[in-house]
Amino acid sequence: MDHASAAPPHDGTNQRRPLRVLVDQPEIPGNTGNLIRLAAVTGVELHLAGPIGFDFSDAKLRRAGLDYHDLAVMSVHESFEAACAALRPERMFAFTGEGRSQHTMIDYEPGDVLLFGRESTGLDPWVKADPRVTDTVRIPMLPSRRSLNLANSVSIVVYEAWRQTGFAGAAVSHAD
């Protein structure tokens, strides 16, 4: 069954929607805890598609998320299909090592769905080929390196997308 924390109201268009991160079948509680914290400090919505590879009472999840759980908008969906039905993405970017576009080449927009796969194997081939996927995207790495950590990858992309959308909602710095 899908469940979610309260999402902020919106006017039905993506112009006022936050960026949305969808992780398909996360396996490591510490990574998910870090993603909860990232969602809380950036205002992105975090969506997890099952099956989930851990119990939400896991101490590593709680420790990594610290006291940010109540500050994040997070939804858990039974499956990728259930997540897509709830999100109804206009644009969904699938992040994979063999992506066609580099993450900095995408012109991100409010409401975009940033799709990442599980830690051990990434996105399933059928998910990358899903017709709802707008583009496959990669984060540059040195040759012969297998992958980045999931939470690090999501952070890199979220901050680039947030930068492009003007850091909407960010605290104003009063430093000189």
UniProtKB/TrEMBL annotation:
<dbReference type="InterPro" id="IPR029028">
    <property type="entry name" value="Alpha/beta_knot_MTases"/>
</dbReference>
<feature type="binding site">
    <location>
        <position position="139"/>
    </location>
    <ligand>
        <name>S-adenosyl-L-methionine</name>
    </ligand>
</feature>
<protein>
    <recommendedName>
        <fullName>Putative tRNA (cytidine(34)-2'-O)-methyltransferase</fullName>
        <ecNumber>2.1.1.207</ecNumber>
    </recommendedName>
</protein>
<dbReference type="InterPro" id="IPR001537">
    <property type="entry name" value="SpoU_MeTrfase"/>
</dbReference>
<dbReference type="InterPro" id="IPR029026">
    <property type="entry name" value="tRNA_m1G_MTases_N"/>
</dbReference>
<dbReference type="GO" id="GO:0042802">
    <property type="term" value="F:identical protein binding"/>
</dbReference>
<dbReference type="GO" id="GO:0005737">
    <property type="term" value="C:cytoplasm"/>
</dbReference>
<comment type="similarity">
    <text>Belongs to the class IV-like SAM-binding methyltransferase superfamily. RNA methyltransferase TrmH family. TrmL subfamily.</text>
</comment>
<keyword id="KW-0949">S-adenosyl-L-methionine</keyword>
<keyword id="KW-0489">Methyltransferase</keyword>
<dbReference type="InterPro" id="IPR016914">
    <property type="entry name" value="TrmL"/>
</dbReference>
<comment type="function">
    <text>Could methylate the ribose at the nucleotide 34 wobble position in tRNA.</text>
</comment>
<feature type="domain" description="tRNA/rRNA methyltransferase SpoU type">
    <location>
        <begin position="19"/>
        <end position="159"/>
    </location>
</feature>
<feature type="binding site">
    <location>
        <position position="117"/>
    </location>
    <ligand>
        <name>S-adenosyl-L-methionine</name>
    </ligand>
</feature>
<dbReference type="GO" id="GO:0008175">
    <property type="term" value="F:tRNA methyltransferase activity"/>
</dbReference>
<keyword id="KW-0963">Cytoplasm</keyword>
<dbReference type="Pfam" id="PF00588">
    <property type="entry name" value="SpoU_methylase"/>
</dbReference>
<feature type="binding site">
    <location>
        <position position="147"/>
    </location>
    <ligand>
        <name>S-adenosyl-L-methionine</name>
    </ligand>
</feature>
<keyword id="KW-0819">tRNA processing</keyword>
<dbReference type="GO" id="GO:0002130">
    <property type="term" value="P:wobble position ribose methylation"/>
</dbReference>
<dbReference type="GO" id="GO:0003723">
    <property type="term" value="F:RNA binding"/>
</dbReference>
<dbReference type="GO" id="GO:0008757">
    <property type="term" value="F:S-adenosylmethionine-dependent methyltransferase activity"/>
</dbReference>
<keyword id="KW-0808">Transferase</keyword>
<feature type="region of interest" description="Disordered">
    <location>
        <begin position="1"/>
        <end position="20"/>
    </location>
</feature>
